[in-house]
Amino acid sequence: MVFRSRRAQRWFQRINGSNHMLWFLAAVSFLETIIVPIPIELVLIPLMALNCDRIWRLAAVTTLGCLVAALVGYGVGMVLYQSVGIWFIETMGMQSGYQSYQAFFDQYGFVAILALGILPVPFQIAMITAGVSGYPIYLFVLAALLARGIRYYGLAWLILRFGRRAEELWRRHAVTASLAVAAVVIAVSLALQVLANRIL
């Protein structure tokens, strides 16, 4: 990744050489999932490219940071929706997206969380909706873990496979690849759901 300013380059070099890099990455993942509208991939890709010997650990830390944030968002939806939840949705301008997603979630539940977790779109809607609806927390955690695990471990594989070209590939095909993966996951999940309903 090419940083445009010397200040940004120095900042990144300090992070990359720090003993607290993993904690930093976990914190950034947490903040990106909760509120910061900046893709973590902008930092994660160059860190992974420079630390291939620890690339799976970086993917794990990023996934866990997101999972902790998802649990916080779930808790906001479950306990504080009328105050913090509504304020957050309105402040972030997510009213229409939230209403549209509620109908999708009511029908598909687990699959809806998976889809939103894989796609490069704000995950807060899924977190709050699951909390408000009282969706089983273990299923929510499983869906969030699978979705973000696919996203970040997939990125790690991409970097190991293509090296420095991974950033360019991500920039060009992030949305298309996310849509394709989400479509496959949704199709498999729905097929399993139909099969389970027939068996039971």
TrEMBL record:
GO cellular component, one term: plasma membrane
InterPro entries, sorted: DedA_domain, VTT_dom
Keywords of this entry: Membrane, Transmembrane, Transmembrane helix
Residue ranges crossing the lipid bilayer per the database entry: 21-49, 55-88, 108-131, 137-162, 174-196
Taxonomy, superkingdom: Bacteria
Annotated VTT domain residues: 39-153
Any matching Pfam family: VTT_dom
Name of the featured protein: DedA family protein
Organism: Marinobacter orientalis
